[in-house]
Amino acid sequence: MTDGRTTGSARAFELLEPLVQAATVRVHAPPGGYDNPRSHRTGPTWGSGFFIAPGWVLTCAHVVGEGGAAVRLAGREVGITFSAGSITGTVTGRVECVLPERLEERRPGRHALWDLPDLALVRVLAPVSHACVWLTDRSRPRFDEVAYFGCTEDLGTPEITGRTTRLRGTAGNGAAIRLGDDDEIEPGMSGGPVVDLVRGEVVGVLKARRQAGGGGLAVSVVQLRTLPMAARGQVGLYRRIMQAHDLYHYDQHLSDLDNRRTWTDVHGELPPQEGDPYAGRGRLTPGERTTLFGLLAELPPPGSSEVVRALVEEARGEEPDPLPPAPLSWRDGLGLLHDPPGGTAEAAAMLRYATDVSVAEYREPATPGADEELWDWVRATAERLWRPLRRELGERHERGLAERERRRRASAGRAAHGPARRSGGLPPGASVLLEVWAHGWEDVYDWRVSVLAGPAHTGRVTPVDSGVRATLAGLPEALRAPLAEAFRRCDTHEAAALLEVAVAPALFGLAVDEWVVVGGVPLGVQRPVVLRHPAGTNPAAANPGGANPAGPNPGGAGPGAAAPGAAREHPADREGTDASARWARVQAGPLQDERADCIRGRPRSPAAEWLTGLPDNTVPVHCRAADQEPTLGSLHAVRDAGYGVVVTRRPPPDPGASCAPFHRGLREELADAGRAEVLPVRLQNLRGRAYGADPDAYWAAGTGLVWEDPARPLPEEEPLQGDL
Fold this sequence. Notes:
By secondary structure, the chain is α+β, with helices and mostly antiparallel strands. The strands form six sheets. Strands 1-2-3-6-5-4 form a six-stranded antiparallel beta barrel. The chain has a six-stranded antiparallel barrel with strand order 7-8-9-12-11-10. A five-stranded mixed beta sheet has the order 15-14-13-16-17, covered by helices on one side.
């Protein structure tokens, strides 16, 4: 027993050690033809890993990258040696994916730290019987005593050993956990599990030790939620693995074919937490919790992260923790219900949540009887709790059933009489907002990423991340992780969420649609991307004549910028104005294009009188650089005239290239679209065709769409101010 371990943690270690050792593996080179399952001739140890679901091993990316810096990680075969009772077996595994994905493009040098989260998922290529760990459902770890396990060679042969320490804090915006220096972390232990000894659950993956010895870093297992999202209509890898994880433990708990201790058994034997306000009836028992996880795993996954968060908020009585990563499964929602506020019992909050899930809308029809089975379990479990809760849950279930039936009837009515929104329009739910501001007169920029709840909850904004003093060249890398997190929160199985880019007109040439965030495909191909004017501008007040002084506006303080205290209003927000009429008219179509900044390829500045006299269904088109005149002034002028749908373009690299193909292709596209409401998605399709090497779509390269939807107001907070 390690010195310094408390009596409670010593007992917990004694109980948990056999379970963790049975699921922890040694990672090395592929077996290479050795047929003897007891053979240890597998070459040197690269590191450790552990089974998180049947057939799936979690380890560190730098472990599977050992000895192969020049080879692609995903698809690489590795060797996995594990114990099944008294037998040691070796099988081949294939790396399914690594996190972050950019490790495939850029890896650190030898002995350097790999980028967080530094995780790899390995799929075993043969059916084998093995144990799996219990993964935490909590979004963040508690700073208690932990044990870490991995492969060591203390006695000259590889074996799985465990040691104890305490969690000392987090790093990397919560992606990493700091470990104390109570014991030494040996090199072969990288990729092994870190187990919370108080709650009996795996919270991290060993990543690195300090060079001076003692202490180190682990990666939070919650970072598994950052696995690549699935294509529309498919179930993602994270949800598949967590479903298999929960069903494994559910089956183990129900089985009477084996008398060995399960994780659920050990959870019931762990020493009680001192001063736990939810002890006794306040918490679900280990058996109840395992059963609930299993019943939730038998349901289809939620349609989006926002669905989970909304149900958690209803059950918890307050908005859940907004910090990343977003909850993606019904299980993740339970992790946000621990220790609810106001003295509410944790068990009660979880039963309310389970009741709501039993009557929720799933991304696909549930297996017949699965939702009823969940409700039957909730009702039976509530029998041991207080009577008012049983009555409340019954009423909650009845209301949920009635609401689900109402939604189904409404859906059937739309199918019979036409869809609620016309085909080809934007998804009606939440969108991602990216705001970028010039930092004074310097060539650096502040940024913020948020989630806009959408027309159903106008004005509701959830911050995701923000930063200051980034260069234009550095923005794609700085924003890669925040944007990926925001997309996880907003994307549904039916559609990728809209990305709204709110910048000053001088930055309308920012090539956000070409950035690659996840999946190796440009953003503009994956989802609709539109431009917005910043919320803090009011051109009618700041520039009433519609004129624009010459010259770009790198500081964001010239034309189109509001003075302190200026009204935060877009012209389309005012009913009865030309702007509101133009928005309604252009949405319905038909569409008429009009060149705003050129005449037959020659630059021009549009007059305010000419712009205001154009028909309401006009879409002004710009083909020149947005940060130069006359285009910059034209962009301000068309906004002053109340145009909410405007087309821009990043000019091609060749300054002598004619803009005629662009105008010709756009005119045909607008005529074929017929109405503006489909333009964001049609432009996404055009980008996809160009990305797929369709010569008929090359003219659309660099095309941007200004989309000032009054149903999607921008937040009114002042922009960030970085260090001066």
